[in-house]
């Protein structure tokens, strides 16, 4: 069983996939897909709790699947009976509860991150860095931070998570990763305010950061 954070209707929620439900309840995936499509729930409930997606099968072909919220899973699992099914239902609900705590922590860090990014942006605007970097100071500094923390730049991190430039990279990072970035951005913001230049700051954070975050 695997409860994860996924996007349904462009919102991050705790979810489980139809593939995992099929595997756990020992059902054919096509049967699970049919069960989802035949649920007699309102369209509003369906849109809020079931997100269409796909996976790549062993023949390297796209195949349909769903992500579902805890409410969606509960609605679907109503029809799966027996002692074994009940045990799995209880296990899923416990996982949803644990994952929702992680998601709450992540959302808190993202809210904190908005103020931190604004502070860094303001510091760069008030310095000569933004003009010197032709308006790209923020992205240059954040790329430097990513390299120090993850040994990857923003584009490499996007490739790792399989997302495009249209997606917000930080939506795909964990609470701990967001916290580390914010701490580093706070430090960089203070150094910029003190009049340090990019080369000085880059050398400083590379020397002082001894713990990289594993990918």
Q: What is the H-and-E element order?
A: EEHHHEEHHHHHHH
How many beta-strand segments? Answer: 4
Strand pairing plus helix content: what structural class?
alpha+beta
Mean pLDDT: 85
Q: Output the strand order for the largest sheet.
A: 1-2-4-3
Count of helical regions:
10
Distance between the termini: 23 Å
Q: Poorly predicted ranges (pLDDT <50, ≥5 residues)?
A: none
Shape: elongated
Number of domains as seen in the coordinates: 2
Q: Roughly what fraction of the amino acids lie in strands?
A: 5-15%
Q: How much is the radius of gyration in Å? A: 22 Å
Quaternary state reads single chain
The main β sheet shows up as: 4 strands, antiparallel
Task: Bin the helical content.
Answer: 55-70%
Describe this entry's structure for a reader.
The longest helix has 44 residues. The two termini are 23 Å apart. The chain has two domains: 77 residues, no CATH class; 100 residues, no CATH class. The mean pLDDT is 85. It is elongated. Helices cover 61% and strands 12% of the residues. With 215 residues, it is α+β, with helices and mostly antiparallel strands. Strand 1 and strand 2 form a beta hairpin. The chain has a four-stranded antiparallel beta sheet with strand order 1-2-4-3.
């Amino acid at each position: 069983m695997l409860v994860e954070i996924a996007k349904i209707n462009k919102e991050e929620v705790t979810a489980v996939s139809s593939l995992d439900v099929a595997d756990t309840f020992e059902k054919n995936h096509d049967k699970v897909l049919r069960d989802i499509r035949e649920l007699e729930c309102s369209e509003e409930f369906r849109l809020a709790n079931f997100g269409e997606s796909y996976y790549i099968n062993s023949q390297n072909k796209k195949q349909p699947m769903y992500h579902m919220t805890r409410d969606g899973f509960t609605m679907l699992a109503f029809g799966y009976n027996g002692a074994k099914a009940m045990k799995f239902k209880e296990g899923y609900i416990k996982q949803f509860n644990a994952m929702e705590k992680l998601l709450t922590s992540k959302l808190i860090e993202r809210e904190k991150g908005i103020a931190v990014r604004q502070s860094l942006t303001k510091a760069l605007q008030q310095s000569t860095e933004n003009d010197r970097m032709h308006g790209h100071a923020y992205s240059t500094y954040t790329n430097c931070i990513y390299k120090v923390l993850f040994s990857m730049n923003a584009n490499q991190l996007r490739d790792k998570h399989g997302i495009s430039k249209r997606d917000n990279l930080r939506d795909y990072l964990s609470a701990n990763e967001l916290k580390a970035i914010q701490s580093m951005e706070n430090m960089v913001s203070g150094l910029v305010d003190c009049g340090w230049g990019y080369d000085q700051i880059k050398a400083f954070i590379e020397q002082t950061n001894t713990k990289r975050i594993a990918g």
